[in-house]
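Study this one:
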Amino acid sequence: MNDDNNTKTKAIKIMFLICGILLVATLYTAYYRYDKIKHAIKTTGKIIGFREEVSEKRENNRTTKTTFYYPKYQFKNESGSIVTVQSNVGTGNSPSYELDEEIKVMYDPNDNQDAQIDSFFNLWLFTIILGGLTLCFTFITFVIKKSSYNF
């Protein structure tokens, strides 16, 4: 019985350690994103095309194809040069922008290629997913810890 409690205690400690690591990672990505936004130069740009990637998923002897669209856009930097950027954030099944659509862009003044479309989705999605994962894992850890005291 004592070995069983030791194993549960070790497992809970490991889970709390993982929660701590996830929390630090979430806070780091949130601060990193905030700092990039704070120092970025904001301008407007235009969608000039899309890179399409087809993904195939096989389930129950059926193949489902999804096309992901990654926007390619241009903007003028502070010195007036035209910068072309291929986004690494895409959407599935249909593009989220239209060709020649005007968009808000933010870029690092020291590295024009470090540009992003200035939208909530592009800027914060990863941080929100990581934060949600942290909350879920922490909740599960507390539930397991609470239930281990009931035995």
